[in-house]
Structures are given as structure tokens and as C-alpha cells.
Write a structure and sequence with these properties.
This protein is an alpha+beta fold. The protein contains three helices and nine strands; from the N terminus they run E-H-E-E-E-E-E-E-E-H-E-H.
Length: 156
């Protein structure tokens, strides 16, 4: 399996580094997700009012906690704001939802490297991940792959 650096698959940038205590919380229906370093709820801490002078990051990014719940990586399906120490990963080529979730899982599988308070700030870009040509077939279900799996599972 060919491995490539994370920064060859994704543009990596730091998030907004906003402080929640300076934002106004609002409802999920009208607010912008505020992504922090938590490891649950897709990293979304709450929903906040849109800021007039700061544009949210685009939907379709992966967010990765660089501290806190280190390497907690989630697909953001709505435009969002971020707290401190959150990296925003924008795919360099089109990836569908299943492929983004696959890469999210691959990134989180490296969590063991960051125990005892070590953060991923300097090393995230160099993390080695499978090349897009090496994504398993079950992630990209084509008609041909589905037929092969059905035949294999029923023993024909």
C-alpha cells in the first residue's frame, strides 16, 4: 500500500482560534457550528451567531483537534467556526463523504502517537496516510464491486 503525506491530500490550516466566551450562543437551526477540541458530537461544542467580520470555514472540511482530545477528526457538513488548536483539512481533490470519513478514521488511528500531553501541531502535516488510489473497494462501492461481494458472500 502506497502511503503519502497528509499535506499532499489536504490543504492544512489553523482554524479561527475563537473564544467561546466572546461569542453569542444560538440554536442549531439558525447558528453556525462552533468546533472545539472535544471528541464527541463531531467536535461541535455549540452553535453561535454568525460574525459579521469573519467568514465560517467551508462545509466538506475535516477538523482535527491538535490538543485536548488529540487527533479527534470529524467531517464538517456545514460551514463552521473553530476554537483554538483545531486544524482544518480541505481536500485537494474531490472526495466523497465515505472517502472523507475513511480519512478521518485513518487520522484518528494515529492518536496513540500523542499521549502524555503531546500535541499534533508540528507533526500533523507529515502524517502518512493511504494514497487515494489505495482506498479500499468497500469505501467506493461501484456496481462491479457490489457484484463481486455478493458473489463472494453467497459462495458462487
Amino acid at each position: 500500500m502506497k502511503l503519502v503525506r497528509l499535506d499532499s491530500l489536504f490543504d492544512v490550516k489553523y482554524g479561527h482560534s475563537l473564544e467561546l466566551n466572546r461569542l453569542t450562543k444560538t440554536s442549531k437551526d439558525t447558528g453556525v457550528p462552533f468546533v472545539s477540541r472535544k471528541g464527541s458530537n463531531n467536535g461541535i461544542d455549540c452553535y453561535v451567531e454568525k460574525l459579521p467580520d469573519i467568514e465560517p470555514n467551508q462545509a466538506g472540511d475535516l477538523t482535527c483537534a491538535l490538543g485536548g482530545t488529540v487527533m479527534a477528526t470529524f467531517l464538517q457538513e456545514r460551514p463552521y467556526y473553530t476554537a483554538f488548536h483545531v486544524a482544518c483539512l480541505t481536500p485537494k481533490e474531490h472526495l466523497n463523504k465515505a472517502q472523507l470519513l475513511y480519512y478521518s478514521t485513518c487520522i484518528m488511528a494515529n492518536k496513540y502517537r500523542y499521549n502524555y500531553g503531546r500535541q499534533a501541531n508540528k507533526t500533523l502535516r507529515g502524517l502518512m496516510l493511504p494514497d487515494t488510489n489505495n482506498i479500499p473497494d468497500w469505501i467506493n462501492p461501484t456496481i462491479e464491486n457490489i457484484k463481486k461481494n455478493i458473489i463472494k458472500n453467497i459462495g458462487l
